[in-house]
């Protein structure tokens, strides 16, 4: 595994390859990231993982500061997984140049997380656009756990006619049901149990509302989540996963999207 901190050295190295499979991450690696990497390793291209905690996608400085970081442990894990390249850029390496393309932000960026985290998706698209310009990956592996992010990156790639192909990867979960996330390392045992109970409550709710949509009563659901231990609920909504619009009835193919807090820790998922 070769490690790069500077885009020019990286570009020189990867220009010799026939294609790159790219997995962007913010580090704090877990089973979700590992599954993306393992899928990428099945392709014939070289696997490149990036670790960059992008300050521009955090709308609160305190959230950026408390985001879990463990680069030493991550490097050890990536070496074991035998990836080809690891790119750990500095802020200047990513933001110290003017990209040829401006990023495209679809209007659905205003919904769900976009409504509650002002500027978040602008930050995500800004950094992804820059990574794509530096790396020009053949494939880019993204998790369905962050479905809105995946949807918006796909829209950007389509709109800008970028040649990279998005590979959607399924959500990997802990034994207790909750989606693996770097932020889970900030949860204590009790909070983990709350998150698990909320996951099972919402999974059951989805099964029920598929049969009888009148059971989707948002105020009652929010009240139930609070009594299960959620501190604050940003949203619980059913979205058609193709059109990324609120569903009109339960015959559509939909996922239940939710974001909530346990104390200061914000968790998102879709089921
Ligand atoms: P992050 O480091 O949180 O920015 O995530 C990097 C990539 O890993 C994104 O494409 C995420 O959607 C994906 N990812 C995060 N958690 C999971 C998970 N539990 N299952 C699958 N993919 C995930």
- Shape verdict: globular
CATH class (first level) name of the largest domain: Alpha Beta
Helix/strand order: EHEHEHHEHHHEHEHHEEE
Ligand identities: adenosine monophosphate
- The helix fraction, in percent, is 40-55%
Describe what this molecule looks like in 3D:
By secondary structure, the protein is of the alpha/beta class. It folds into two domains: 168 residues, 3-Layer(aba) Sandwich (Rossmann fold), CATH 3.40.50.620; 89 residues, Pantoate--beta-alanine Ligase, Chain: A,domain 2, CATH 3.30.1300. Helix content is 41%, strand content 19%. The chain contains ten helices and nine strands. The strands form two sheets. A six-stranded parallel sheet has the order 1-4-3-2-5-6, sandwiched between helices. The protein is globular and about 55 Å long. The mean pLDDT is 97.
Outline:
The protein is of the alpha/beta class and 271 residues long. Helices cover 41% and strands 19% of the residues.
Write the layout of secondary structure elements.
Elements: E1 2-4, H1 7-14, E2 20-25, H2 31-42, E3 46-51, H3 61-66, H4 71-81, E4 85-87, H5 91-95, H6 112-116, H7 120-135, E5 139-143, H8 147-159, E6 165-169, H9 189-211, H10 218-228, E7 232-240, E8 254-262, E9 265-270
Parallel strand pairs: 1-4, 2-3, 2-5, 3-4, 5-6
Antiparallel strand pairs: 7-8, 8-9
Helix pairs in contact: 7-8
Bound molecules: adenosine monophosphate.
């Amino acid at each position: 595994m070769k490690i790069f901190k500077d885009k020019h050295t990286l570009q020189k190295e990867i220009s010799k390859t026939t294609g790159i499979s790219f997995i962007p991450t913010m580090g704090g690696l877990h089973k979700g990231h590992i599954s993306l990497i393992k899928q990428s390793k099945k392709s014939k291209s070289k696997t490149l993982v990036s670790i960059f905690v992008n300050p521009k996608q955090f709308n609160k400085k305190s959230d950026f500061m408390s985001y879990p970081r463990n680069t030493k442990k991550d490097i050890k894990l990536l070496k074991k997984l035998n990836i080809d390249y690891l790119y750990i850029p500095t802020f200047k390496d990513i933001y110290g140049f003017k990209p040829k393309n401006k990023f495209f932000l679809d209007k659905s960026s205003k919904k769900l997380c976009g409504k509650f985290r002002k500027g978040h998706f602008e930050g995500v698209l800004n950094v992804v656009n820059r990574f794509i310009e530096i790396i020009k990956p053949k494939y880019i592996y993204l998790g369905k756990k962050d479905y809105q992010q995946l949807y918006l990156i796909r829209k950007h790639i389509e709109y800008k006619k970028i040649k990279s192909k998005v590979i959607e990867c399924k959500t990997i979960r802990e034994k207790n049901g909750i989606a693996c996330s770097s932020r889970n390392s900030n949860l204590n045992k009790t909070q983990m149990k709350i998150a698990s109970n909320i996951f099972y409550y919402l999974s059951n709710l989805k099964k029920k509302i598929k049969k009888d949509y009148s059971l989707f009563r948002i105020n009652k659901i929010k009240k139930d989540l609070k009594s299960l231990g959620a501190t604050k609920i940003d949203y619980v909504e059913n979205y058609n996963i193709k059109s990324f619009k609120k569903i009109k009835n339960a015959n559509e193919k939909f996922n239940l999207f939710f974001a909530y807090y346990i104390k200061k820790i914000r968790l998102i998922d879709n089921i």
